């Protein structure tokens, strides 16, 4: 099973230089992004039909970001060249028998005149600046650092993610701050939360092959990887792309503003000492970040308390991740109490969960059928869902499978299952933008329900005497209060948070000091969900649609 990323944007150094010059011409505002408007003007010089240009944009902007970076622009130019020479444009054309590195430059009518004009403007601009150069900082990077949530001009939004950042700062964050959403549900979002690469988290009991799975995909070891039959991974390890191979301690990672792990500081130093980041240059890690976790305890070991909130950390990562892999092996199908708590902490992220039955080569085909049935039975009791979760069967390690122990049917099954899982992983970067929108909308609805709950509890408090007794009564009957909120505002029962968690947090607060309901804030979030997000998606869809 090969886990190499799709070979896109590959070309000779000479062509790279030319495409970079063209990219600078197409990028009208010099922000490093060719938007839909920029692209329609530039690609019109290719003289291709609108249908062909629609397909080219769709393939080049496979992540649906709403703009083309230099790599995506290079892909678009290569596709234009292929279309001009008679190739049918499909998503697989660059992976077929075409010699990507030797694709000729496309013919762009009027480009030379446009290039000369751009060069004159650049020269004049440099004279005016007296030779000084100031690198342009993306506008969106400044929004989270400003003390006031000023209105952002629409021209500053050049991608879907930029648009989500603007909506968060202007519409959603004020609601979250007013009702202390960050104390009850999730920390406030930062710039790095929007810009982070997609993440895949691996969960399972010790020695089910989590670390080996990552090593198998990378085709090499990563810094700090330990593999053995005993519980070797005793910490959370984030495996991500970096300029060199090194391990970075948790306290250092948690304070880096360009990484989305600042929220982990709430779990304290005991956790951060069990958290580290492994960085290394790797093409797969340029697309995806992996989160390796400590083995879930079973048997007598469950009685040993961890020094930090393990399930809380898992829940935090689950909200950030794009895919969660639960790993089992044929000899560890029992789901311990701690594993049950871990799976319960994934509530609300069911669509991200995939199950992997690893080390399947250790049993023959007949035993594998029985193991699969037992696993589905065990999962059915824990997941509490009528839908059948997707289970991948295989042996995700670099050891050769003993073909004598497995008949051809089993061998073929392993290969197909591994290919299916690899496709799921490769699709993650392409679906990252859709996932971000999905998570943003989910967060907005959760913040709205949270505001209704907090304002309702505030309304139920007396204005003068007996506040302590009233607060205790409300906390004791919190489930009934949730029911009142649901009926009053016609909210779905499934969207409400955990009563036990809220009860625990409320014990350390004075309900009387909470904010009353602010209809204008609620309406702003409703308008954002009903009108502004759909408008944002419309503005950054394929410009040829």
Can you describe what's shown?
The structure is a single chain. With 545 residues, the protein is α/β, with parallel strands linked by helices. 48% of the residues lie in helices and 8% in strands. It is built from 20 helices and ten strands. It has helices at residues 13-26, 36-43, 50-60, 70-84, 111-128, 140-143, 160-178, 181-184, 191-195, 210-218, 250-254, 268-272, 310-320, 337-344, 365-383, 408-460, 467-476, 478-489, 499-506, 519-539; strands spanning 34-35, 67-68, 199-204, 236-241, 246-249, 275-280, 289-292, 323-328, 353-357, 391-393. The strands form two sheets. The chain has an eight-stranded mixed β-sheet, with helices on both faces. Helix 14 (337-344) links the parallel strand 8 and strand 9. Helix 7 packs across helix 16 (408-460) and helix 7 (160-178) packs antiparallel against helix 20 (519-539). The two termini are 37 Å apart. Mean pLDDT is 82; it is low at 1-8 and 127-135.
Radius of gyration: 26 Å
Strand content: 5-15%
Shape: globular
Strand line-up of the largest beta sheet: 5-6-4-7-3-8-9-10
Give the beta-strand count: 10
How does the major sheet shape up?
Answer: 8 strands, mixed
Number of helices: 20
> Ends: how far apart?
37 Å
What helical percentage do the residues reach?
40-55%
Parts with pLDDT < 50 across at least 5 consecutive residues: 1-8, 127-135
Overall SS class: alpha/beta
User: What string gives the helices and strands in order?
Assistant: HEHHEHHHHHHEHEEHHEEHEHEHEHHHHH
Mean pLDDT: 82
């Amino acid at each position: 099973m090969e886990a190499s990323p799709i070979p896109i944007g590959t070309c000779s150094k000479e062509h790279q230089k030319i495409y970079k010059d063209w990219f600078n011409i197409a990028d009208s505002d010099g922000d490093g992004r060719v938007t839909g408007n920029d692209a329609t003007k530039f690609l019109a010089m290719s003289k291709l039909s609108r249908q062909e240009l629609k397909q080219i944009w769709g393939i080049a902007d496979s992540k649906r970001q709403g703009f083309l970076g230099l790599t995506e622009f290079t892909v678009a130019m290569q596709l234009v060249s292929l279309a001009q020479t008679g190739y049918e444009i499909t998503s697989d054309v660059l992976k077929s028998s075409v010699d990507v590195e030797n694709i000729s430059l496309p013919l762009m009518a009027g480009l030379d005149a446009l290039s000369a004009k751009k060069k004159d403007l650049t020269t004049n601009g440099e004279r005016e600046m007296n030779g000084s150069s100031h690198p342009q900082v993306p506008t969106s990077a400044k929004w989270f650092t400003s003390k006031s949530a000023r209105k952002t001009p629409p021209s500053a939004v050049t991608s879907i993610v930029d648009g989500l950042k603007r909506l968060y700062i202007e519409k959603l964050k004020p609601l979250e701050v007013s009702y202390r959403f960050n104390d009850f549900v999730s920390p406030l979002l930062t710039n790095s939360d929007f810009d982070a690469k997609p993440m895949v988290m691996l969960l399972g009991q010790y020695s089910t092959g989590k670390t080996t799975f990552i090593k198998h995909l990378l085709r090499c070891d990563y810094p700090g990887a330990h593999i053995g039959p005993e519980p070797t991974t005793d910490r959370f390890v984030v495996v991500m792309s970096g300029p060199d191979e090194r391990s970075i301690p948790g306290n250092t990672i948690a304070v880096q503003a360009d990484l989305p792990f600042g929220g982990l500081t709430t779990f304290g130093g005991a956790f951060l000492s069990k958290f580290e980041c492994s960085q290394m240059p790797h093409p797969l890690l340029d697309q995806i970040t992996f989160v390796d976790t400590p083995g879930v305890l079973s048997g007598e070991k469950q009685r040993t308390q961890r020094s930090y909130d393990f399930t809380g950390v898992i829940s935090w990562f689950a909200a950030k991740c794009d895919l969660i892999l639960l790993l089992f092996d044929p000899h560890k199908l029992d789901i311990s109490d701690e594993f049950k708590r871990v799976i319960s902490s994934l509530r609300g992220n069911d669509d991200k969960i995939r199950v992997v039955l690893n080390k399947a080569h250790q049993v023959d085909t007949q035993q594998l059928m029985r193991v699969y049935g037992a696993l589905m039975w065990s999962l059915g009791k824990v997941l509490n869902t009528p839908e059948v979760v997707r289970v991948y069967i295989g042996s995700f390690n670099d050891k050769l499978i003993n073909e004598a122990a497995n008949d051809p049917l089993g061998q073929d099954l392993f290969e197909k299952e591994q290919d299916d899982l690899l496709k799921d992983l490769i699709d993650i970067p392409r679906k990252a933008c859709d996932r971000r929108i999905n998570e943003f909308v989910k967060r907005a609805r959760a913040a709205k329900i949270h505001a209704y709950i907090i304002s309702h509890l505030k309304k139920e408090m007396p204005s003068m005497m007996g506040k302590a007794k009233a607060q205790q009564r409300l906390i004791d009957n919190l489930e009934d209060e949730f029911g009142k909120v649901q009926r009053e505002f016609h909210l779905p029962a499934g969207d409400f948070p955990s009563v036990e968690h809220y009860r625990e947090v409320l014990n350390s607060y004075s309900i009387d000091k909470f904010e009353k309901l602010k209809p204008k804030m609620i309406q702003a979030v409703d308008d954002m969900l009903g009108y502004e997000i759909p408008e944002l998606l419309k503005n950054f869809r394929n410009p040829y649609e």
